[in-house]
Amino acid sequence: MTDTWLIVGLGNPGPDYRNNRHNVGQMVLDELASRVGGSFKLHKARAQVLEGRLGIGGPRVVLAKPATYMNVSGGPVAGLANFYGITPDHVVAVHDEIDIPFNTVKLKIGGGEGGHNGLRDISKALSTKDYLRVRVGVGRPPGRMDTADFVLRDFATAEKKELPFLLDEAADAVELLLNHGLVAAQQKFHPARA
Fold first, then answer.
1. Residue 2 scores a pLDDT above 80
2. What angle do CA 152, 169, 131 make, to 5 degrees?
3. Which domains does the chain have, with CATH numbers?
4. Which active-site residues does the annotation give?
5. What pTM did the predictor assign?
6. Is residue 125 within 8 Å of residue 74, measured between CB atoms?
7. Which residue, among 154, 162, 167, has the nearest Cα to 16 in the 3D structure?
């Protein structure tokens, strides 16, 4: 099943966390699910899963939202990769990123986790950092606010107005990545440097 992609939206379970910045990855998965059609179902690997095709004749995908807390996302990701026979180069983690501005989407493969414990746990569980990441910018905490406090808060009122566009753009980035590869997606979503 090497043509199948595992797309994982990172976040925390439960209604208290649903609209937090830290859950933006799961929000993107909800947008992708609306494009695939169908609804998430609980999988034995401790994740909500939706199988389908992304677009008519598009790639086969397994959309997954781990049912565990962010910091222990690795077990569900590795369990699903093993269950579906998906190699790390076909795993895409969609996650919040404080090191890029709000309303920005960037993509990469491998590299460091930037202090993101969800990514760190996935790297450990997959025994590699060489999986794809769609990084959804949530901006940096204001002043001296603790990073954990910042990402566990809902988006600000002004951000909420822009959020649907950001989620749509991040979902577009996932589609472009799967259909045309990392370089093409980076060329579209990374601003040219002057």
1. no
2. 70
3. 4-189 (3.40.50.1470)
4. 22
5. 0.95
6. yes
7. 154
